[in-house]
Amino acid sequence: MSFLKSLFGPSRKEIWQKLSGEVGGRFHEGDLFTPTAVQVRADDWIITLDTFTVSTGQSSQTYTRLRAPYFNPEGFRFEIYRASLFSELGKGLGMQDIEVGHPRFDDDFVIKGNAPGRVRRFFDNQKIRRLIAAQPKIRLSVKAHEGWRSKFPAGVDELHFQSTGVIKDLARLRTLFDLFAEVLQELCHEGEAYEDDVEIHIRRLSAPGGEIKDKYLLWEGDGPRRDAAAALGRLGNPAAVPALSSVLRDDDALLRARAIEALAAIGHTDAIGPLIPLLGDTRDADGEPVQQRVAGALRQLGAGDRVDTVLAALGGDFGPLKADDGAYRAQVVAALEGALEGPSGTHAANALAGIHAVEALPRLREVLRRTGSQEAAGPAVAAAIRRLEARAALPRAASAARVGLDTLPRSARAPGPDSRTLPRGSDAPPEEDRAD
After folding, report:
1. Structure pTM?
2. Would 194 disulfide with which of 115, 140, 200, 289, CB 3.0-4.6 Å?
């Protein structure tokens, strides 16, 4: 073994294990089906180093690659590789080459992209140019993942590097990880420190949740989104209210909890409307019912009376709800609808009927269809549907009817619209052609 080591040098396993320790990563030893890999977490991203082989039947070629999925809602794309005789020929055949304004760098590399201005700003980063120039071979690009076969959520693409052969140069590998960390920072935050940047945290919060897995976990979106929600609450800027409101019903319980806490911390009344419907949410949010968390947040926002009214109705006391002034009616109805399939379902159905919430009929029918009349709240839901359908069929008061005058019945002598606007048979002569 020592003879082979002196002949061929350290193995990939030895080099990559040492690399993993130096960059604070995790070494994954491969097997028959899974390649050896090193993974490093850098802020919101997971950078994965491994190899893959392309076979053509007659021969095969192994490549070293680095990958890092990231949120790319703008769809910015670029590709860079070293210039050569063949790349010059390619440019002559119509490949786009963007000049970034750094002459030596422009001479050494072919750079393509779908937004020339953004490409130039990107390569104004001196550290990125230096780390790229240190690579003897490089093909670095943003790979789009689109179509029904993609494992990637909408808006998530992949920063991708590949080079022929198995790279065992430790210094080069360290430089590649440094390059990826810097490129991701530039792509996602344009090089700005983001701890106190509201817009960047809103962008992080807008990324999809969940995971991307191949042989290994490549991307995990929930953690960064939770962190972004907490940061937005700490920063207290009302501009974050719409983004935080948009994740209140997310599948991730921890994210829901962080968003509720952040909205309470920001303290802006625009959060009241989005929070009220969650008073009927029976799910958990980080060990505490959503309803309980939301009630506390609304009280902190000065909407304690609204909380008491809805919770009383869900407890069977509809008096305060019937006497309510009607503010936030749509949100209150949504809260009652959300409680229909929970332990307060019977009271929620009765309350909807009691406040004549005809607009809740579609939701009531859906619940009855899905759960059936034998469930605990089934009879109350069915009774509410009958009462509201009967009410919906009643004639409306004239003051409540928002219809045009020409659509109302009238006597034959009542004045009406110009007769030339009325439908007529095909054999009726036009008005101007009739005899006086």
Report:
1. 0.81
2. 200
